[in-house]
Specification:
The chain is of the alpha+beta class. The chain has a single domain, classed as Roll (Nuclear Transport Factor 2, Chain: A). About 25% of the residues lie in helices and about 45% in strands. The protein is built from three helices and five strands, in the order H-H-E-H-E-E-E-E. Strand 2 and strand 3 form a beta hairpin. The longest helix is centred in the first third of the chain and has 16 residues. It is globular.
């Protein structure tokens, strides 16, 4: 697959997740999927890990709106800068707002593709109040 094809797959992936279509995970993520984060070193791998990641986001943020601020593709990687806005409904966590507060989360992520499927997800997120200029 070309880098532009991978980019198109990723954009579709984000749109479908935004609609609540979790079946897209089986279509777009590899059985070898790995989420790489120093905050979660023992994150489950494979499709179950991808489903857990998508579910975690949905259980933490109500009325989430994801904006892809920048997206680039080269070779087997898709790189993006994104902003997620919504209402925090998750458990108390350091650096996150109180339950019921609106917030924005900016992030930069790198996704590696093999044969049109996401194999690796590396990302860094920063949470801030929604009145903070972002993007």
């Amino acid at each position: 697959m070309t880098s532009e094809q991978n980019k198109a797959i990723f954009i579709r992936f984000v749109k479908e997740l935004g609609k609540g279509n979790l079946d897209i995970i089986d279509e777009v993520c590899s059985p070898d999927f790995a989420f790489h984060s120093p905050n979660f070193p023992n994150w489950p791998r494979g499709l179950e890990g991808a489903r857990t990641l998508a579910g975690a986001g949905r259980s933490m943020v109500a009325d989430a709106e994801t904006k892809l601020d920048d997206i680039f593709a080269a070779d087997d990687k898709v790189v993006l800068r994104m902003t997620i806005r919504g209402t925090y409904i998750g458990e108390p966590l350091p650096g996150f707002p109180n339950k019921g507060e609106r917030f924005a989360m900016g992030g930069v992520a790198i996704y590696r593709f093999v044969d049109g499927k996401i194999v690796d997800d590396w990302g860094i997120q920063l949470t801030c109040p929604t009145d903070t200029p972002w993007g």
